[in-house]
Amino acid sequence: MKCYSCMRKVADTTKICPHCGAKLVMDQEMFDKARTGDSDTIAALYSMAYEPMRLAANAVLHNASDAEDAAMDAVETMLQKIHQLDKPESFLPWAKQIATNKAKDYVKKKKPMLIAEAEDDEAPGFWEK
């Protein structure tokens, strides 16, 4: 896996990045601070969760721009609902599920675009040979 702060590769079982010192998993102390709205902890959660959330959204949407929008919406929802999280160790799967759900909402909201057919007398000249 990659560190969400410095983006360097680290072992999957690593809890603290050996390169930059960033926490890679939410511990109980971080969990408690997040629930009280501590701004430093919120920033750390954002750093930890944004990239996995964006990737989860992109897996559904297959569009980088839409995935970024869905991930940002998911971050907002995550921060509003952090008090609903029961266990700190389930933080990243929970956050990625929020992003996946937001991406699915984007798919539902997109309406198919219909292209109106032009009448023969309105057809542009490039259609003619």
General description of the model:
By secondary structure, the chain is an all-alpha fold. The protein contains 4 helices and no strands. It has helices at 28-36, 39-61, 64-80, 91-109. Helix 2 (39-61) crosses helix 3 (64-80), helix 2 (39-61) crosses helix 4 and helix 3 (64-80) crosses helix 4 (91-109). Mean pLDDT is 85; it is low at 117-121.
Task: Describe what is shown at a glance.
With 129 residues, this protein is an all-alpha fold. The chain is 53% helix and 0% strand. The longest helix has 23 residues, at 39-61.
Number of helices: 4
State the helicity in percent bands. Answer: 40-55%
Question: Low-confidence runs (pLDDT<50, min 5 residues)?
Answer: 117-121
Binned strand content: under 5%
Determine the N-to-C terminus distance: 56 Å
What is the structural class?
Answer: mainly alpha
Tell how many strands the DSSP assignment holds.
0
3D shape: globular
Mean pLDDT: 85
Radius of gyration: 21 Å
Major sheet size, sense and barrel closure: none
